[in-house]
Amino acid sequence: MLDPVLLFFLLGLTAGLLRSELRLPAAVYDLISMLLLLAIGLKGGVELAKQPFSALAWQTLAVMGMGSLLALLAFGVLRFVGRLPRADAASIAAHYGSVSVATYAVGVDYFTNRQIDFEAQMPLLLAVLEIPAILVGILLARGLSRDMRLGVVAREVFLGKGIVLLVGGLLIGWIAGPEELAPITPLFFDLFKGILALFLLEMGLITAAQFGSLRRYGLFLVLFGICMPLISSTVGIAVGLGLGMSLGGTAMLGILAASASYIAVPAAMRISVPEANPTLSLAAALGVTFPFNVLVGIPIYHAMATHAFELTGGLGP
Fold first, then answer.
1. Distance CA 271, CA 292 (A)
2. In 3D, which of 289, 313, 270, 300 has the Cα closest to residue 99?
3. Of 208, 266, 200, 260, the residue nearest 230 (C-alpha)
4. ∠237-305-263 over CA atoms, to 5°?
5. How far apart are CA 44 and CA 24, in angstroms?
6. What is the dihedral of CA 202, 207, 213, 214, to 10 degrees?
7. Tens of pLDDT, residues 187-228
8. How many CA atoms lie within 13 A of 260 on its CB side?
9. Is residue 315's pLDDT more than 70?
10. 146 burial via Cβ count (<10 Å: 0-12, 13-18, 19+)
């Protein structure tokens, strides 16, 4: 039986494909997105307050290295197998080296329902995964040149709404702790699943809008949108094992690696690689990879991590 929040996604997807008039008002969608990001950040911050922050340095560096590696890997496939133009290959690669907050939120719901614990620092790792893939994508598209607008890109990356809310929530949760946050817990924690359901309803509508682009650009993008997350999740699980994470943490890192950005990266690519076709990257990330991950990918990555744990005994550093 599918989780009810996934049924909301299917409702939005079906309504979109049938060209229903169903739409969430833009202001409502913005509010839901903000609540979701803040809730994820606050939850991570509360848990983060229970452990020393300095211990996260190696994990943060390793995860940033993973994001760069995944972008390079995706670029090689897109450029030399798919024979896409350099700018398009670099832009799509940046999307697949980065991360999807919505996929992470569905992963949190999946593990919470099964009472599987994972490392509290995941929201922090989620935030830092946005950054390296964008920089690698720009370098792949342009190389090092004097006309690179690094300041503009850095502002878009670090001061974008998603990163500010996610990191801001993380810091608030970390500083305040669970007791001080208790008065706002009903809004951000108790209603998390309902907020996620409404968010996925809108995501289903948006995903349906990308299907036309997929028909236009062919089978390669569909295959890439399914195969790349399977490869990326393998890398993420290997990194989780190498860092000595728990089974839940290793599986969650596999989910993060398998997801593709469709919020921060498109905005950064629009500024830095304007010649890239944004329809290609959004069609692959939103039209294929996102529904694949939330409907079937997350249980697959969990099973892969479980099998890897059985084989290695939870390999550590």
1. 29
2. 289
3. 260
4. 55
5. 28
6. 180
7. 988 898 888 888 888 888 888 887 776 776 678 889 999 999
8. 33
9. no
10. exposed
Phi and psi at residue 59, to the nearest 5°: -65, -40
Site of tokens 């991360």: 99
Measure the CA–CA gap between 130 and 112, rounded to whole angstroms: 24
Quick one: residue 96, left, alpha or beta (phi over 0 = left, psi -120 to 50 = alpha)?
alpha
Among 58-67, 197-206, 251-260, top mean pLDDT goes to: 251-260
- Structure tokens of 48? 């983060």
| Residue 272, amino acid | S
Distance CA 290, CA 100 (A): 8
Is the per-residue pLDDT at 181 higher than 90? no
Measure the CA–CA gap between 23 and 14, rounded to whole angstroms: 13
Nearest partner of 235 among 260, 259, 254, judged by Cα: 254
Has this prediction a pTM greater than 0.70?
yes
Closest to 169 in 3D by CA, of 134, 122, 111: 122
SS (H, E, C) the chain: CCCHHHHHHHHHHHHHHCCCCCCCCHHHHHHHHHHHHHHHHHHHHHHHCCCCHHHHHHHHHHHHHHHHHHHHHHHHHHHHHCCCCHHHHHHHHHHHHCCCHHHHHHHHHHHHHCCCCCCCCHHHHHHHCHHHHHHHHHHHHHCCCCCCCHHHHHHHHHCCHHHHHHHHHHHHHHHHHHHHHHHHHHHHHHCHHHHHHHHHHHHHHHHHHHHHHHHHHCHHHHHHHHHHHHHHHHHHHHHHHHCCCCHHHHHHHHHHHHCCCCCHHHHHHHHHCCCCCHHHHHHHHHHHHHHHHHHHHHHHHHHHHHHHHHHHCCCCC
Q: What is the residue type of 210?
A: Q
Residue found by looking up tokens 């999307």 in the block: 95
Q: Of the candidates 228, 237, 234, which has an alpha carbon nearest to the alpha carbon of residue 261?
A: 228
